[in-house]
Write a structure and sequence with these properties.
The structure holds 2 protein chains of 2 kinds. Helices cover about 70% and strands about 0% of the residues of chain A. Chain A is mainly α. Chain A has one domain (about 1-245). Chain B is an alpha/beta fold. The chains are: A mainly alpha, B alpha/beta. The interface between A and B is medium-sized, with 19 and 29 residues.
C-alpha cells in the first residue's frame, strides 16, 4: 500500500511544479464556470423558465457540471498514448507494481487536486452569485455519489482504451481531440442534453458519454423516477462491463 | 561451477512494418491501401549466460539488441523461442522476478523530470519494498561511488546528461538487482563520464556479483568490461565467445609501425604489405597476420630500423570486418 501512497504524494508534487501553469489552468476553469453562470443568469433575468429549467435548477446544473468535470472527465491519462508509443511505459511495466493500479493512483491524485482547487473556486462563485442550490433526498444523493464513482471508472476505462492507440500509432491527438469534443458535447458539459430534440437525445443515450456527467446531474436535479434510476443504473453497469472487457 | 542465470533458446521476434510508397500520391494511397513487410528483428538466437558474467551485446543499429533485451525483461512477447531469466519466464511478469532485475535504457528516463532524483528513489524504495536500512546503505554507497550526493535534491531537468545518467543508474540499482540489462548506458556522454560509468559498472559487478548484459556502440565500454561478447547482425547471432578469440578468428592483418634511421622510399616497402601511413622515417604497414613476424624479420635484416612495434588490428576494425563479411 505504501507504494501507492508514495506515488500519490509524488503525483501531487509533480502537478504543482509549474506555478504559472497551475494558476492559468485553474483560472481557465473558473472563467468557464463564471461565464456559464453569467450567461444563464442573464437569460433567466427575463424568463422564469427556459428549456424546462428554472433559474435555480440551471445554476445547480452549472455547479454540478463544474464538479463532475473535475471528478469524472478530467483525466491524468490524456498523455497515455504518447507514453505507450514513446516507450516510457516500459519503466512501469518492468517494476513490481500493478500498472492499472499505478494509473488509477495517478487519476485519483489528479482528481483530488482538481477538487481541492474547485472548493475554493466554488466558494468565490457562491459569494458572487449567491445561488440557491437544489438539494436531493439522502437516497438520491447516495445514488448520485455511486453513479459519479462509476462514471469515474467508466472514463478511466475509456482513457485506457484511448491510450492503447499508442501501441499502433504515434499520432493519437486526432482521435483524442475528437473525443474531447464529443465528450464536451455529449456528457452535457456545454449545455443540458435535454434541450436537444428527442431524436438526438435517444441517439446520445446509445453511447456511454451521457454517463460521464449528464445522467448524474439529471439524477441530482430529481428528473428521474425510480424506474429510470434503475434503468440507468443497469445501462451504466453494462457500459462498464463491456468497455472493461475490451480494456482487459 | 557458476550457475546458469539466463538461457535463451531459438528466440525470434518478427515485426510487421508499414512500407510507404514515396511522394504525395504514396501518401494518398496509404490512406486506403497499405503494404506491410515482415522484419525479422531477432531471428533464432540462442545463448546462455552464467552468474556474475558481463556480456557485451554488440551489433549495428537495428541489429536486434534492444529487442532482445526487451524480451528478456518481459516487455515484448517473442514470435517464437524460450527464455529463462533467474529461473523465471519473463513474460509471466512475476513480481519476484521483477524485484531481481533492472533494465536501464540510455535513451529513456525513469526519473521524474520535474522532481529531484531523491523523490524517484523514494518511489522505487516503496515499489521494490526495500527496507529502510538497506535503502540508506545502498543509496549512500552508490551516491558516493558515483559522486552525486550533492545533486540528489536538485530537479532532474536541471542536471547535466552525465549527472542524470548517474542518477538513473542509482534508481535502477537501489534494489540490488541480480541481473542488469544495460542498453547504451554511456550514450551521449563525454569520455570522462563514460569512464566513470564503466568503472562503476565494473565495481558493481564485483561487489554484488551481478550478471550484466551490456549493449554499447562504444567499443571502449566492451573492451574494458566484457570478457565475452555476443555479436548480432540483422537479428542473427554471428559470434558468441571470448573477446580475445575474435581477434584470432577474424583479424586478417597486423599493424607494423616502423621507425627508420635513414630515409626510405615507399617503393622499398610495397612488397611487404599495404602502407597505411608514410612519413620519411616513420611507416605504418598492414601485413598478413600469419606472416607478421616473418615480414618484420625481413625488414629488420634489410633496413636500419631503430624501433618496431607489432599490433593487433583494433577491435572496432575487426567487428566492422565481421559485419562486412556477413553483409556480402
Amino acid at each position: 500500500m505504501s507504494k501507492y501512497i508514495t506515488l500519490l504524494k509524488l503525483s501531487w508534487q509533480n502537478g504543482l511544479v509549474y506555478r504559472t501553469s497551475v494558476i492559468m489552468w485553474r483560472f481557465r476553469q473558473f472563467l468557464k464556470t463564471l461565464m456559464s453562470l453569467t450567461v444563464w443568469t442573464v437569460i433567466f433575468a427575463s424568463n422564469a423558465n427556459a428549456f424546462n429549467y428554472t433559474q435555480d435548477s440551471m445554476i445547480t446544473y452549472i455547479f454540478l457540471v463544474s464538479f463532475l468535470q473535475s471528478m469524472i472527465i478530467a483525466s491524468a491519462l490524456n498523455g497515455l498514448a504518447h507514453r505507450v508509443y514513446s516507450g516510457e511505459i516500459s519503466n512501469h511495466l518492468i517494476k513490481p507494481i500493478n500498472i492499472y493500479a499505478y494509473f488509477a493512483v495517478e487519476e485519483i491524485a489528479d482528481k483530488a487536486k482538481n477538487v481541492g482547487f474547485l472548493l475554493v473556486e466554488v466558494l468565490i462563485l457562491f459569494l458572487i452569485f449567491k445561488p440557491t442550490i437544489i438539494l436531493p433526498s439522502m437516497f438520491i444523493f447516495l445514488v448520485f455519489l455511486i453513479w459519479s464513482l462509476l462514471g469515474m471508472i467508466l472514463n478511466f476505462i475509456i482513457s485506457l482504451l484511448f491510450g492503447s492507440f499508442g501501441f499502433w500509432s504515434p499520432d493519437t491527438w486526432g482521435p483524442r481531440f475528437l473525443f474531447f469534443m464529443i465528450i464536451n458535447f455529449t456528457a452535457g458539459s456545454l449545455f443540458p442534453l435535454d434541450i436537444l430534440p428527442s431524436v438526438i437525445q435517444k441517439v446520445l443515450y446509445l453511447t456511454p458519454f451521457p454517463y460521464l456527467s449528464f445522467v448524474q446531474i439529471q439524477l441530482f436535479l430529481g428528473k428521474f423516477n425510480n424506474q429510470e434510476v434503475f434503468t440507468h443504473s443497469i445501462v451504466l453497469l453494462f457500459w462498464l462491463g463491456l468497455l472493461g472487457s475490451f480494456a482487459s | 561451477m557458476k550457475k546458469n542465470l539466463i538461457s535463451v533458446k531459438n528466440l525470434s521476434k518478427h515485426f510487421k512494418v508499414y512500407k510507404k510508397e514515396p511522394g504525395l500520391m504514396g501518401s494518398f494511397k496509404s490512406l486506403f491501401v497499405r503494404k506491410y513487410e515482415t522484419v525479422k528483428a531477432v531471428n533464432d538466437v540462442s545463448f546462455e549466460i552464467n552468474e556474475g558474467e558481463i556480456i557485451g551485446f554488440i551489433g549495428q543499429n537495428g541489429a536486434g539488441k534492444t529487442t532482445t533485451l526487451k524480451m528478456l525483461s518481459g516487455l515484448l512477447y517473442p514470435t517464437k523461442g524460450e527464455v529463462s531469466v533467474l529461473g523465471f519466464n519473463p513474460w509471466d511478469r512475476k513480481q519476484e522476478f521483477q524485484k531481481q532485475f533492472a533494465l536501464i535504457m540510455g535513451q529513456k528516463n525513469q526519473l521524474w523530470w520535474d522532481l529531484p532524483a531523491l523523490e524517484s528513489f523514494m518511489l522505487n524504495k516503496a515499489i521494490y519494498e526495500i527496507p529502510d536500512k538497506q535503502f540508506e546503505d545502498t543509496l549512500e554507497k552508490l551516491s558516493t561511488l558515483l559522486d552525486v550526493k550533492d545533486i540528489l535534491k536538485i530537479q532532474v531537468r536541471k542536471l547535466s546528461l552525465g549527472q542524470r545518467m548517474k542518477c538513473e543508474l542509482i534508481a535502477a540499482l537501489l534494489h540490488n538487482p541480480k541481473v542488469l540489462f544495460l542498453d547504451e548506458p554511456t550514450i551521449g556522454l563525454d569520455v570522462v563520464m563514460q569512464k566513470t560509468l564503466r568503472d562503476f559498472i565494473k565495481e558493481y559487478n564485483k561487489e554484488f556479483g551481478a550478471t550484466i548484459i551490456l549493449t554499447s556502440h562504444y567499443m571502449d565500454d566492451v573492451k574494458e568490461l566484457c570478457e565475452r561478447v555476443i555479436i548480432i547482425d540483422h537479428g542473427t547471432k554471428v559470434y558468441d565467445g571470448l573477446l580475445d578469440k575474435i581477434i584470432k578468428k577474424y583479424a586478417r592483418n597486423k599493424t607494423l609501425t616502423l621507425s627508420f634511421d635513414e630515409k626510405i622510399s615507399k617503393a622499398d616497402l610495397n612488397e611487404y604489405g599495404t602502407i597505411k601511413s608514410f612519413d620519411e622515417n616513420q611507416v605504418t604497414l598492414l601485413v598478413k597476420r600469419s606472416e607478421a613476424t616473418k615480414i618484420a624479420s625481413k625488414i629488420l635484416n634489410k633496413f636500419k630500423v631503430n624501433d618496431l612495434n607489432i599490433e593487433e588490428a583494433p577491435i572496432e576494425a575487426i567487428i566492422r570486418e565481421i559485419f562486412s563479411i556477413q553483409n556480402k
